[in-house]
Amino acid sequence: MTISTIYFFVNGKAITLNNPDPELTLTYYIRNTLRLTGTKLGCEEGACGACTVVLGKHDENHGKVVYQAVNACLVPIYMIDRCSVITVEGISKDRIHPIQERLAKGHGTQCGFCSPGFTMAMYALLRNKANPSMEEINQAIKGNLCRCTGYRPIMEAFYSFSDNPGGCCGGGKDGKCPCKEGDEPALAAKLTTFTEMPKYDPTQEIIFPPQLSIKNKSPVSSLFLKGYRLTVYAPTSLNEVVKIAKEIPDHKIISSGMISRLVLGLSAGQDDVTWISLHRIPELEKAEVADGKLVIGSALSLGQLQAFVYENHPNGKELLKIFKKYSAEQVKNTASWAGALTSAAAASDFCTLSLATNSYVHIFSLEDQSRKRITVEQLFHSSGKTSLKPSEIITAIEFDANEHNVRYFSYKQGERRGADSTIVNGVMRVEVDGDQIKSARLVVGVDKKPQLLEAFGHRFENKSIPELSSTFDDWSYDLGTNFDSSMPDFHFRMSLVKSFLLDTINHLAKGDEYKNLEINTDDFEFLQLYQQTVDNGVDACGRPLAHQFADRHAMGEAKYVNDLKFEGLLHGAPVLSTEAHAEVLSIDPSDALAIAGVVAYLDERDIPKEGTNTPAKGHLCLVNDDTRVFAAGKVEEVGQVIGMIVAEDVVTARRAAKLVQIEYKKLPAILTIDEAKEAKSYICDPLTFGKEEEEVQSALNGSQHQISGEVSIGGQEHIYMETQSSVVVPTEDKEFTIHTSSQGVAIAQISASVLLGIPSNNFTVKIRRVGGAFGGKAITQCGFARNPALVAANKLKRPVSVVLHRNDDVLITGKRHPVKCQYKVAFSADGKIEAVYFTSFVDAGWSTDNSVWVSNVIGSLATTCFKIPIFRSQVHVLKTNKQSNTAFRGYGQPQVYFIMDAIVNHVAQELGMNFEEVKELNFARVGDIAWAGSAIRNDGMLECWEECKRLAEWEKVQREVEQFNNTSPHIKRGVAMATTRFGMPHAGPLEAGSALVQICYDGAVSVSIGGVEMGQGLNVKIQQCASRALGLPIERINLLEVGSDKTINAPVTGGSQGADIHGKAVQKCCEKLLEGLKPFLEKANGDWNTAVFQAYCNKVQLQASEFITIEREQHGLHGHDPCYYTSGACCVLAELDTLTGEHKLLAVDIVMDCGESLNPAIDIGQIEGGFMQGYGLMTCEQLVYNEKGRLLTDTAYKYKIPTVQMVPDKFRVKLLDGISTYPEQIYRSKGVGEPPLMLGSAVHTALLKAIIAKRNPTKPLIFDAPFTAKQLYKHSNEE
Questions:
Q1: Active site positions, annotated
Q2: Is 148 annotated as ligand-binding?
Q3: What does DSSP say about strands 463-464 and 687-690: parallel, antiparallel, or unpaired?
């Protein structure tokens, strides 16, 4: 067969490829060959949406061009023949696209890594429907993940394209805002007004290439592509399939090949594999209505099937409701419905739907070319997966479109709310006659296959709907007898099925009046309240300006480490341990080195003798961390780096890394906190804080009331969208330029020096931006990519890139520390806490990292917002054989906030008091001395608490919740409040800042700081500081790339204090420059450009470098006292389905004291994003390990961060104004990145209250975090 070429367009440019490797994905082609790096790689499994592009292709069934969003990481290059590919760069060739503009100006970007994907998901929707509904927008973007923003600004920006954008004031009468009426006329209610932006004009879009329109009129030809490991045949007729199958018996038939390609791509096998793809057979691409039947070909995607059924089936909307919770539109547009059907998997929503409709499947035999038509029930009735023979293929599915008086009801629950993988699904077909049910067909996906509960369905027949509703418990009691009781989580799954049945009956009985926990579609209220400042055209401070890179993020122009290309660039991939604890007996890389394109294998033996394998150990890297770059004779966790394969391309490197053979001698592994306690496996001696034990015990024994208990909080994966990444470029004479995704320039420079034994001034570190970090790229963790790249570049004398695959990143890097706390508490009858004794156990993982420092925070700040007269905390830092846990946003404080709230809950329940009442009674107040020894000053927490009560209408909501719970048997509500109080800046070497301000003699200003922009808005805040200090418009000021050649010894960027320290340094530089410019400005009557040029001509210094520290002593503060506190309060209203464990947030109100905000948009974005990250910590984010210590939740798909569909229905944030501030604060502002995360504990308390409302317990209930759906169900139904 002749080798084929494929023909397609990218952004209007025609491309012809001869015999492209069929394993090549669209992502790698457009990024590496076309250098269109706006399409990002975030997960490489279709779970995050960062690689979303749009495919335009001619749809024969509709006779028009359709545009579909797809994950380019899932699409093989051969699948885009005759298609037009549009990337984020392609929609903004001559101008910024309205989507990009609204996303940027609407503050929908922070780190920006996910922004191109969101842009293109929305673009696909607008190309097909210029005026989408809010529901359609939510569906379009539900497959895109964002870790920074909390989604609200993205949703609000995109809702502006809808006729009914919703929001707070969108629904106000007479254009008035109901939230603002009162005594605060100066408050703004929205950060952005989209009505002033250009309207979307679909006639201005890039056209479908005429050449493709002409080509699509000609018959499609067969494809034959021969790759290194894969050969693909794509015939154009079934007869051709028969011929190829006979000639090549060892073949695999595929439809889209999505799953097959993923499996093959992750394998290291070198055998030649043959696929026969059915996607080009015209007969299988048809969808038609014939004789009352919908017949849909098997070459069509699940998305195409859904669209056709929706348009042509009388029950299309009901029939397809189950797909509202399908993982992503991008996946649906790629996945084959036929592939799903042949899986016969219970987790497949399409399998369950098809069995419920009992559709007919058309089957073709490759053996004798015969055709047959069987029901899906017959297809699934088999001891194997299906009744299909190996020689049979599905050609079409057939739905009955002549159904009358038929209703469909569907159900799906995943591990988090909204689009997710399936735990249980169900579809019920009900034939009704008035209020009488004539027949019912019930199918549920519970265990292995979808299951038809035929006998159970008969119980519905000839019954009235009221009768079924009133006797539900009588006829559903033996539901579990239909299933294998040995399946995992049997009782949980049975309760989910029961909930589905109950929902169905309620829908039948009450119609549209019945409301359950369905996904919100069009009733959102978003509000951002802040003090308005007047835009005078000069002073930028206080204005809600967009992120410095916002437009570049949205347009795909922002470059990250993986986007950088250098001549001769090599790529590294780590070789990882597969054992949790073992001696390494031998390493054999010979199979890997035999692969074409592999250059070298490296490990600890390749570190120069002048260097060290533990570059963070010792005083130079501050934390004295014993983490090794490469394992040395022993591995201590599954995922520890043993060595690295270096190859000419990253795909080859990753495949070859899996071929390195490691021989182990297993050693006993410690995998849990309890095992570490028993083995006395400690990182260091116990850390002790507070009073002596005798005094605490005396207080406990002498108290009127005493309780004790134990509570735990799990770890949390960072899921920064940009994985750990570094490119090291050797220059000359042992000099290197390092491009790294890191929070610390100086740390990267020093650790490189220590690693290779080369002076630090031989290394220049450059950091343009970081695609999210949250503490996970602070010190050691970013070294997992950078240090092996340094070793390789030093040895091979070529540039080396190490960009971790998401799976490797999650397996290698540390998480938030899990903590178990045993507590004893003494308190009075009125709820006043008198004494607390904490004993905490912190899971550090296999090495030290930040664990001792984090544990110090856990111990010293354990009282959080409360005043506790007698307090003692002892912290044990445990060594386990898991990832080495590290810094994470909040740095130990989220754990202790949760623990303290659990204690307050315990006290409140013990006394029969309200949680908030006990909380308020024990608040520490301004002037009190915290147990860390610092006085509370410049703090507005109590004011935030009271204002939050007012904003949320606290008393009213409590009454409404009680009324609701009294009348709702299964769905319960809880409302709770939380507080945060975060002292800043942090005393020590990390609170020193340096800056360089340079004025070009034409008047333009360049600013360099040592702080890293990673989404927190540091850069634009620094620009605003410089604008005020110099009296210049912000447009005249540019912030340059961070580099060790500009600002030396810069502290790690973290702790929410970047603007504090770097802003002060910039302010000082500007003041120094203005001193020299003052006479020239006076002579030029304030004309900046003239004054600067005259100063230049007179040899006046036009650049200034300054180093600052926070002055404490001169303002009466002790050396380590926080200068101020960023504080806040939050009210959460949650709703819980106690039959399923699913929940939703009905309302979240947050009030924060950010001082005089430098930038309300940035601060509110940090508040919303921080809260959503805390929400995930409390609910859906769970680290799951197997019994061998391997992390099972090791991908962006398996690890569940919050999604668009988890955003609260009402999300309101207010910045408090007028709180006292510290003179050293930069323009009276406060840092805000970390404090809002602690407010997530309110979600846990609200859900706990909902459980209590269901159970009405006789003793206090205290539960661990996270509250997953399974845990919520379990706790709601325990006796």
A1: 1234
A2: yes
A3: unpaired
